[in-house]
Amino acid sequence: MSQSIGTNCNDLKIEYDKCFNKWYSEKFLKGDVRPECKELFEAYRACVLDAVKKKKIDKIISDARKDDPFPAAANSPSSPLEDINKHYHHE
Predict the structure, then answer these.
(1) What is the number of domains present in the chain?
(2) How would you write the chain as a 3-class SS string?
(3) pLDDT value of position 1
(4) What is the mean pLDDT of the chain?
(5) How far is CA 15 from CA 5, 9, 52, 84, in A?
(6) pLDDT digits (tens, 9 = 90+) for 49-73
């Protein structure tokens, strides 16, 4: 598995990946689409967003969005990190 953008997020990523892969193979593929792993995802996402801010990547994301925005976020007044949250948030 790949490393997280923030090295302090690696353990959370591993735990979330394990949970997601188990859910996907044992439930989702058998028709049970009820989401699981939300708490792990939320913790991992918060860690990644903090790493993005600390590395000042949020400005790069913002600039890239101006050039090629996500279709749903094209007219959104939200910040780049809020857009990332919306794009990657699994419910």
Answers:
(1) 1
(2) CCCCCCHHHHHHHHHHHHHHHHHHHHCHHHCCCCCCCHHHHHHHHHHHHHHHHHCCHHHHHHHHHHHCCCHHHCCCCCCHHHHHHHHHCCC
(3) 64
(4) 82
(5) 15, 10, 20, 21
(6) 999 999 988 888 888 888 877 776 4
Contact 75, 53 (CB under 8 A): no
Residue 33 belongs to a domain? yes
> For residue 17, is it within any domain?
yes
* 2 located within any domain: no
Instruction: Quote the CA–CA distance of 11 and 27 in Å, as a whole number.
Output: 24
Q: What are phi and psi of 3, to 5 degrees?
A: -80, 160
Range of the domain at 61: 7-88
Q: Is residue 43 part of a domain?
A: yes
Confidence (pTM): 0.66
